[in-house]
Structures are given as structure tokens and as C-alpha cells.
Amino acid sequence: MSTIFIVGSSSGIGKATAKLFAEKGWTVIATMRSPEKETELTSYQNVFIYPLDVTKPEQISKTVSTVLEKHEVDVLFNNAGYGMKSRFEDMTEETMQKSLNTNLLGMIRVTQKFIPYFKKKKSGLILTTTSLVGEMGLALDGIYAADKWAVTGVCEMLYHELAPFGIQVKIIVPGVVKTGFKMEASAMPGFDQLLKNQTEMLMPDTDNLESPEEVAQDIYKAVTDNDRDRMCYVTGKITKELYEKRQELGDEAFRKYI
Ligand SMILES: NC(=O)c1ccc[n+]([C@@H]2O[C@H](COP(=O)([O-])OP(=O)(O)OC[C@H]3O[C@@H](n4cnc5c(N)ncnc54)[C@H](OP(=O)(O)O)[C@@H]3O)[C@@H](O)[C@H]2O)c1
């Protein structure tokens, strides 16, 4: 069986993925900022928990090298994320730094550590959780959207750069998932109607939001897909509809449609 290294596995999509892969017999390296708080994943014999904060380069180096001394890793799953919502002009320096540092630089730092290892073994898969807002611009997503667009771009670039070395690069694209994901939001005066419209478009049925377990199933399909060359996996009914609508209409017509 294979081994997956998960970044951001303390809750939501990351934890559901850790559990699913463990139940499928994989070895799971579940990394998180506060391993001492974990009580659920500790019950699996094939889950190994390590500390990893994507904003701490030294800790990333230490954890990745310790893990690679003990395990042969097949899949890196970058999933850590920090969310915010704000009027663009109100974003604070602190919020911008935190978002960039976690969502974009964090993903880059961890991925950098795995590339030489995957190149040496001439195989490996780098899967990253992006977002629907990394595929299309919507109002008030600020630096979070910028980070997710950038992460999508980094992944597409790496898809080409790493293909000659037998390394696959894939993204999982969720829309709205029922997790505890916090979008730190400031007051957004003047945007009530627009927010209401966007919310209705993204969540027409709030009782039936996609669950992290459903996303984990799509992550499992992406990782085990026979189509090694496919990069993008959109998850969730509404997210797929919007993504496909953009493909069908083209960028300009889609912006007018939104
Ligand atoms: N939920 C949605 O609607 C949605 C939609 C689109 C995309 N996404 C993306 O899905 C991914 C997972 O989010 P989720 O919905 O499952 O929410 P979540 O339960 O809040 O998970 C976020 C994870 O990221 C971790 N994290 C945050 N900052 C970190 C850092 N500096 N270093 C390491 N780990 C860090 C959190 O760990 P702590 O417990 O330590 O905070 C947590 O495990 C994120 O990348 C998010 O952007 C979510």
C-alpha cells in the first residue's frame, strides 16, 4: 500500500481525507499545527502524526526529513488554508501577510521540500486544495482569491516542469464545503445585496452543502485516477456547474453572466 503526507489534517477536508485513506489501508502521515490536541486520528494504527505549521520553514524541513527517513511517501497533499473576506480597500497588512504566508508561500515551502525526493525516485504526486475562487473572480474574496489563483498557477506551472521526472501535479477545487473553515470577515458596508446574490449562487440549498467526506472521496479518485495526466478535479455539484458554465461560455461571457 501507498503513503500520503497530508498538510493541515486537524479538521475538515484534511481530517476526512486522513480517515478515508487510512480506512483504505494507506499509511497516512497526518501533519498539523497542534498534534497534542488530536484525539481521533491517534486511534488509527496506520496514521502517524507530526507537527507542521506551513509558516515555519525550519519546522517544515525538520518534519519532512524525519518523515522521509522513516517512510516512503507517494503523495503530498497540500491542504492547509486560511480564509478571509473583506472589501479590498479594507484589507489589513496583518491579514494580507497571514493569507499569503499560509495559502501560497506555505504550499510552496512544503512542495519545495518534496521535489528533490520525488525527482530522485522518479515518481510522486503533488495534490493541492485550491478553491472555486482560484478559478473565477468573485467579489470580496480579496487576498484569499489572489492566493488561490496563484496556487492554481503554480500547480499548472509545476505540472509541466515536473512531468519529465514522472511527477504528477493535481488540484482539487472545492466551492462551499461544510467544514469549520473560518473566513475572517470585516464589515462590508454597501455590499449586502451583492453578498446575498453571491451566497445564493454558491449555496442555493444550505441544507445540502458538500461534506468534507464527499470531498475526500473525490480526493481518493484523483489520487488513484488511471488518467495520470489529468490535473484538475472540481468537487461538488454547484461548483462543477459553475466551473463548466465558464468553460462553456468562455471567460468574457461568463463574467457578464455572473
Ligand atoms: N470549506 C470550504 O468551503 C472551502 C472551499 C474552498 C476551498 N477550501 C480549502 O480547503 C482547505 C481545507 O479547509 P477546510 O474547509 O477543511 O477547513 P478547516 O477545517 O478549517 O481546515 C483548514 C486546515 O488548515 C490548517 N491550517 C491553517 N493554517 C495553517 C498553518 N499555518 N499551518 C498548517 N496548517 C494550517 C488548519 O489547522 P488548525 O487546526 O491548526 O487551524 C486546518 O487543519 C483549505 O485550503 C481551504 O482554503 C475550503
UniProtKB/TrEMBL annotation:
Transmembrane segments: none annotated. Keywords: Oxidoreductase. InterPro entries: NAD(P)-bd_dom_sf, SDR_fam. It comes from the Bacteria. PANTHER family: RETINOL DEHYDROGENASE-RELATED, SHORT-CHAIN DEHYDROGENASE_REDUCTASE FAMILY PROTEIN. Belongs to the short-chain dehydrogenases/reductases (SDR) family. This is Short-chain dehydrogenase. It comes from Limosilactobacillus caviae.
